[in-house]
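Look over both lines before class:
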Amino acid sequence: MSLFLKYWLPPILWASVVSIFSSDNFSSDKTSPLFLPFFQWFLPHATPEVIQSLHFLIRKLGHFTAFFVLAMLLYRALRGGRGPHWQLRVAAWTLGVVLLYSVADEVHQRFVPSRSGAWSDSLLDFFGGCCAVALLYARHRTKAGALTPVAVSDPYGN
């Protein structure tokens, strides 16, 4: 398998999945019949407002998670197995692509009749990407030994 496919096929496929999630089939009206009965079964004493809030939360977590995964895959593809595990330039390009894709995704949703593109969703998408890059950086720092625990001295001199 070529190196291009090894590194670029996963983010391309995942970006396609994100685009599918932006379609009419995954609008709030279409996911309500799936999630609302489950929440009513799982939380029989919950009010309709709580059930609607849970549906909203699940949908927003979907935004965050989808772009978190996309950022992880893009970072891997842009790095291409070369150089040190952490590269600021690769992180910046990753976040740039995530931001552009999140804005394009919301613009696309404005043209889908049952969807409405919201800039707040784009910010949430970008935040998911930022968290992924931050996790990659923290992992790098931990492996480098920079985040090892500091010994605390005994205040009594023991």
User: Anything to note?
Assistant: The chain has a mean pLDDT of 84. The longest helix spans residues 48-79. The chain has five helices and no strands. Residues 3-143 form one domain.
